[in-house]
Amino acid sequence: MARMRTIAERAQVLLGTAVVATTPIAGGDVSNATRLRLSDGSNALIKTRPHAPPGLFEAEAWGLRWLRVPGGVAVPDVLGVSEDCIIVSWVEPGRPTVDAAEDFAQAMARTHASDPGGFGAARNGYIATLPLPNKPESTWAAFYVNRRLLPYLRLARDRHALSDLAARDIETVMHRIEEFCDPAPPPARIHGDLWSGNLVWAAGGPAHVIDPAAHGGHPETDLAMLSLFGAPHLSRLLDAYEEAASLSSDWRHRIPLHQLHPLLVHAAIFGGTYGGRAGSAARELLEGPLDP
């Protein structure tokens, strides 16, 4: 009860509005989530984490605001942010439908088409609790190798979450990256960590994205992340995206390439089988030449 009072008091300071009720929300590996009922009858969500890494919530707020473009994916409004918490508008969860998946795919295509200004971002961020370097590079290949693969390959090896064979295969893919990626893709405004848990299917409204690792990247990265852990109506979602956006015919062959980064992140954080899965993704690329 004391903790709930503390959260309510913290929210009231940031919002300038009285909090009349709090309800803990289950789930979430990074932060504690609490639903707030405000005195004006609206609801909000506050996320807190003891001893949060510096700038964790500020980076999340920046990413949510940066992803908001006309006609693009829906994101919660950022209502308040500080070093120890973030408060966003409440999204009432609903059941995913085929129509909602199609609408989301079309909105995501519009978000991706919004020019981010280059590969990278104006500030570094986080993916889960790991620092996410976003220093821009002139090409996607250079950005992906230097900012998305190399740091997490090193971290996974340091934490003994990756076999020597898997590491060698991933290093080979990095050295031969030009063989596996588009020759000159334009930068896209992407979420960067779009697994199904970061997609809220709203009741009576559009699906919202949360917890971004936002940056200028490749649209196939978001599609590959959705495919990695599954999402409701995934097949129709991907087909609808293809109908709305311009994708090369062989984009599905590159899914293992884009999944290397999240698999390395998971290996570094959770260990388990993720290191082996990262090695398998690299081996699939090396042993399976793209169709002409």
Describe the structure.
There is one protein chain. This protein has 292 residues and is an alpha+beta fold. It folds into two domains: 88 residues, Phosphorylase Kinase, domain 1, CATH 3.30.200.20; 190 residues, Aminoglycoside phosphotransferase (APH), C-terminal lobe (Aminoglycoside 3'-phosphotransferase, Chain: A, domain 2), CATH 3.90.1200. The chain has ten helices and eleven strands. A five-stranded antiparallel sheet has the order 1-2-3-5-4, with helices on both faces. A hairpin with a 7-residue loop joins strand 9 and strand 10. The model has no long low-confidence stretch (mean pLDDT 94).
Taking strands numbered 1, 2, ... along the chain, how are they ordered across the largest sheet? 1-2-3-5-4
Report the biggest beta sheet as strand number plus sense, adding barrel if it closes: 5 strands, antiparallel
| Total domain units | 2
Q: What's the β-strand tally?
A: 11
Shape, please?
Answer: globular
Based on secondary structure, the structural category is: alpha+beta
The CATH class of the largest domain is Alpha Beta
Helix content: 40-55%
From the coordinates shown, what is the CATH architecture of the largest domain? Alpha-Beta Complex
Please name the fourth-level CATH homologous superfamily of the largest domain.
Answer: Aminoglycoside phosphotransferase (APH), C-terminal lobe
